[in-house]
Amino acid sequence: MKIALLTEKYTPDIGGLAISSERLARLLSSAGFEVRVFSPTGNLLPSEQRTLPSSGAIVTRFGSHKRADDTLVDWFDLIIAEHARDPFDVLHAYFLTQAGFIAALAGRYLNIPSVVSIRGNDVDRAAFDPSRFSHTMFALQHANVVTANAKESIRKAKAFFDREIILIPNGVDADHFKPMERNEALAESLNINHASAAVLREASPRDGGGDAALSNNVIGFVGELREKKGMKTLLSAYAQVNARRPSALLVVGEIRHGEDSQTFEEMRASISESNIIVTGYVAPNDLPAYYSLIDIFVHPSLHDGMPNAILEAMACEKAVIATPAGGTKDIIEDGKNGMLVNVNDADMLAEKILALLDDTEKRESLGKSAREFVVRKFEPEQELTANLEVYRKLGLRGNTVVE
Question: Both 344 and 211 in a single domain?
């Protein structure tokens, strides 16, 4: 069976959508299916194409235009041309708006089934964009199957158009993301173990003072930090924590360019004696070493699907504090395998962080429960099996889908 995977982001692009679409392509390829990925990119000139193998799949990136409708035309034409050359059995779109629209439209045009997967931000924000609303509705109405990775996303999507939507949570590779000893060499290279003389002088006796104290107080965030991910809440909470207990804030990833970057720099400058480290892009294969540096993982999103970073942190046995946004409610049971705080509540977040910094036993207990939970409930094989069942429902044959 030949699967065309349409996605608006794909590795090495930044963000959860790129990670999730690459994971699905890899899982399907490893199960013996022929996977073709089609994804626009700003790194190529408009209408330029580049096709390369990646993780067992064949990936075609094509240059996007300034106008979204021109990009959509190219995307549609590309799928039609490739199907004529070597026919697809199914079109599977990751993201409801643009990718979902093209998959549903091309599927009807070519008379082949289409699957559209809702990822979170598509129903949280993109669907409220007038220029994307018609695409959203078309995909919801005309895709043969719609899936989503979070219960909250299903509820929101059904408010737009009531139809069956199948829940398929994200998976996490718990053999790759697992507990490991703190990578001291990496900590040293990031300057996490060092602070200004003023901070060291002000370290409280209970912290033990000095570098050792600071190295044991690392608050971590992984991903592209921006407004939607609760950037202001995170920085405000960190300022409160750092004033009472000198700590490092480790942002493993980048700050979104534009207004988010400007806001971040303004807030960072306002935090006295801060120790904020922004790593820049880190490849997924290298992330476990960065998770090893984190004492408390924080994810204060305003809106979300099912965050890969939370699953990864939990698999690495980290104590997680997050907001109950989107699929986070499907993952974290407050006080048992993590902690929940109200959206946009920096004071509450700061208090929870401080409480966990003071309670090593609680941090370890939450971390162990977190790993046990994701290993049991979020294996990549379960994600693969659920997608294969979708293909079976469509009557698709080939490899192991229908015997």
Answer: yes
